[in-house]
Design goal:
about 375 residues; alpha/beta; 10-stranded mixed beta sheet; 5-stranded mixed beta sheet; 10 helices; 15 strands; about 25% helix; globular
Length: about 375
């Protein structure tokens, strides 16, 4: 009898170890958060993840997948979140949050408060992707990957798949974002998203997220967003560009397209009296993936180098218009010569001008011409 009582007592003790655990089906999982600021109030949007959508990758279903986005408002980010909690029937779990999308107003007016909350809350990891948008935040969170794919595999959940195929603005995680803001002379270049309808079905068009530019933050200051072609030069002066195309023209017509892979770059600073100058050198190699005119390899190398130099200078000058330093020239001088950086900075930043970027040297080398020789497929040549 004593053995039975002892066994029952131990069994009860073991059960009590799970009393405070939350059942999986009794929680909602935050997949992405949108942060906005309007009329002195913080606005929080939360996209809720349904784990049943993940099973669609392995099992076909006729049920249409939807996203659910909630909204809360408050004088501080925390009160905005608790305003949303009032309408949430189950507990929200933040540990699986994959992305944070800032509006321009949030970046300009409430960045410090928002970051403080997202850094203090223990459930939020340091790895969510950071995005911005020049439009409303809510529609960005309402876009669902087509073909009933899981949101985990979408642009917000995994931007690297698309970036590795076509690189323009490198995706940025939260821990890297915070490190860039705290590094002297460093800017944070945030991918900016927009909504497009470039995909269609038999009955309707499908909305998708696409890269629309890069938002520049320096310290706590929002500097602005470079949109579309204005940011095209950034791909040559960032650490992890994987794969990106260059169009070479002849007589104002496309002659060739070269796919550059993993270009290297270096930045050198020069201090001359009271003036500071920078030089950028880019080494890019790739293969010809399209040939529309018969041109030589030397022509392609030379013209591609000119295109890359032009793009680098264009983005640099467009960034100057918003007082942005997308190429991290401030930081390069700080690392090479911190004394000179402190001597020449005002409010922690150099006063860059068009002349500050003195020389851009680009070296291009063609590594292959794909499966064909280096002349157009339809030609009078005989093999």
């Amino acid at each position: 009898m004593k053995k039975i009582c002892m066994s029952f007592f131990l069994f009860i003790l073991l059960l009590t170890g799970c009393l405070n655990a939350n059942e999986l089906e009794r929680m909602y999982y935050v997949h992405a958060a949108g942060l906005d600021y309007e009329d002195g109030e913080f606005i929080i949007y939360l996209q809720i993840l349904n784990f049943s959508t993940i099973a669609k990758e392995m099992e076909q279903t006729e049920e249409e997948a939807d996203t659910i986005v909630g909204i809360g408002r408050g004088r501080t980010p925390v009160t905005a979140i608790h305003d949303l909690y009032k309408s949430t029937p189950q507990r929200l779990f933040w540990g699986h949050m994959a992305a944070v999308v800032f509006s321009e107003d949030a970046l300009e007016n409430g960045l410090n408060e928002l970051l403080d909350d997202f850094l203090r809350f223990s459930e939020i990891r340091h790895t969510p992707w950071i995005f911005s948008t020049i439009g409303d935040v809510s529609p960005v969170l309402e876009v669902y990957p087509f073909l009933d794919a899981s949101p985990i595999l979408g642009t917000l959940g995994d931007p690297m798949d698309s970036y590795e195929q076509s690189s323009y603005v490198e995706p940025l995680r939260k821990h890297r974002f915070i490190a860039d803001l705290n590094e002297p002379g460093k800017s944070a270049n945030i991918p900016s998203l927009d909504i497009s309808e470039r995909w269609t079905t038999e009955n309707a068009s499908k909305r998708s997220l696409h890269l629309a530019g890069t938002t520049v933050i320096y310290g706590e200051d929002y500097r602005g967003t470079l949109e579309n072609l204005d940011m095209v030069g950034l791909r040559w002066v960032q650490p992890n560009t994987q794969r990106t195309p260059v169009i070479v023209t002849k007589d104002d017509k496309p002659a060739a397209v070269i796919m550059m892979k993993e270009p290297d770059y270096s930045i050198t600073s020069h201090v001359e009296n009271e003036d500071i100058f920078f030089e950028i050198e880019v080494d890019a190699g790739g293969g010809v993936i399209e040939l529309d005119q018969e041109v030589s390899e030397d022509f392609i190398n030379s013209e591609a180098a000119k295109v890359i130099e032009k793009e680098i200078r264009l983005t640099y000058e467009k960034a100057l218009e918003i007082e942005g330093d997308v190429y991290q020239l401030n930081n390069e001088l700080y690392k090479e010569n911190p004394h000179e950086w402190h001597e020449h900075t005002t409010d922690g930043a150099l006063e860059l001008t068009k002349e500050s970027l003195r020389e851009v040297q680009v070296n291009v080398h063609i590594e292959h011409s794909g499966k064909n020789k280096l002349f157009p497929a339809l030609t009078d040549r005989h093999y």
